[in-house]
């Protein structure tokens, strides 16, 4: 699997984003794992002979905590790179979620190594 992050892996649909972030939504599931809060919608059942597509993701960093755009962008780049390097952790046997939202919850900018460690644990848990 090439280590790329293509347009098809980015979550852009307003309808799906609304469903993912809707309070009390029955289709979206959530869990916390430092430094992330993960929201995801499970994959619809597909035939076992086809390889499931990679999930579409969105990364959010709160403006309330990180006032400067450069700080938010730095965190977003680190999270995106950690995801890109570790997305092979999605096993082909187990269906991966269709859509994922990574909400950054740490109160300060943390190192790439810590973000990557959290990303690995989150992807394994999913």
Automatic annotation (TrEMBL):
Keywords per UniProt: Endonuclease, Hydrolase, Nuclease, RNA-binding, tRNA processing
Annotated coiled-coil segments of the chain: none
Membrane spanning stretches: none
PROSITE patterns tied to this protein: RIBONUCLEASE_P
GO biological process, one term: tRNA processing
Function: RNaseP catalyzes the removal of the 5'-leader sequence from pre-tRNA to produce the mature 5'-terminus. It can also cleave other RNA substrates such as 4.5S RNA. The protein component plays an auxiliary but essential role in vivo by binding to the 5'-leader sequence and broadening the substrate specificity of the ribozyme.
Protein name: Ribonuclease P protein component
Species classification: Bacteria, Pseudomonadati, Bacteroidota, Cytophagia, Cytophagales
